[in-house]
Amino acid sequence: MTKPFTVRVSARWRAVAAALILLALPGTAHGADTPTSTDLPDLTGVRSKIYAERYSEAVEELTALTTTVQHADLYNLLAFSLRNLERYDEAAKWYREALYYDPDHKGALEYQGELFLKLGQTERAKVNAQKLNFLCPDGCDELNALNLAIAEAEGTLGELPSGDSPRSALSR
Q1: 118 and 78 within one domain
Q2: What percent of the chain has pLDDT over 90?
Q3: Residue 56, domain extent
Q4: Predicted TM-score of the model (pTM)
Q5: What total number of domains does the chain contain?
Q6: Contacts (Cβ under 8 Å, ≥6 apart) of 145
Q7: Is the terminal CB of the chain with fewer CB neighbours within 10 Å at N or C?
Q8: Which value, to the nearest 10 degrees, does the dihedral of the CA atoms of residues 132, 134, 138, 140 take?
Q9: How many other CB atoms sit within 10 Å of the CB of residue 84?
Q10: Same domain membership, residue 109 and residue 172
Q11: In which band, very low, low, confident or very high, does the pLDDT at 39 lie, cut at 50, 70 and 90?
């Protein structure tokens, strides 16, 4: 009687094979808790409305898009427009949604921080600034803008030494 041929595969090789199979599966490139975004349509027209401070028109157009598009940039623009219309509760919802789809969205972190300042929640704005400081170790416009807004809210803007940037002064 002959014995069946068996191959002994080490646990290490099984793990490598499993990893390769997982990488080959569609849709597994995203983190387990980060939802998949849909393609973002051209928002040039909406951005023009926002730059022209026609926020109500932008909100109308962006809200219609939320029924078919899931994207952090869309939600961030909608929240920005709502915040400028002083519709803070709605803006907060859409900033949360933007950060759900992209937790490192620098624009959403900056603007949500500015919303926190409008609501008198300076400590929460500082948390966003700390995250931006982590994301932008060499500085970035979003971090600088939020740090300036925090300094203005705290009344410390005039206390910056000459030549000192808002980033260096507020990140000490």
Answers
A1: no
A2: 66
A3: 43-97
A4: 0.72
A5: 2
A6: 110, 114
A7: N
A8: -10
A9: 16
A10: yes
A11: confident
DSSP conformational letter for 87: -
> Any alpha helices (H) in 85-162, and if so which ranges?
88-101, 106-118, 122-135, 141-154
Task: Quote the tokens at residue 11.
Answer: 């646990």
DSSP state of 33: T
| Token representation of residue 12 | 């290490």
pLDDT for 51-95, tens place per residue? 999 999 999 999 999 999 999 999 999 999 999 999 999 999 999
Is the Cα torsion angle 135, 141, 142, 145 positive or negative in sign? Answer: positive
Q: Are residues 168 and 112 in the same domain?
A: yes
Sign of the CA dihedral with 42 first, then 47, 49, and 50 last? positive
Amino acid at 39: D
* Pair 72, 40: CB distance under 8 Å: no
166 with 129, same domain: the answer is yes
3-state secondary structure (DSSP) of residue 8: coil
Which of 30, 65, 97 corresponds to the end of one domain?
Answer: 97
63: CATH: 1.25.40
Specify whether 92 is located in the same domain as 116.
no
Q: Which residue has the tokens 């219609």?
A: 64
The DSSP symbol for 158 reads G
Q: Does any domain span residue 25?
A: no
Same domain, 113 and 88: no
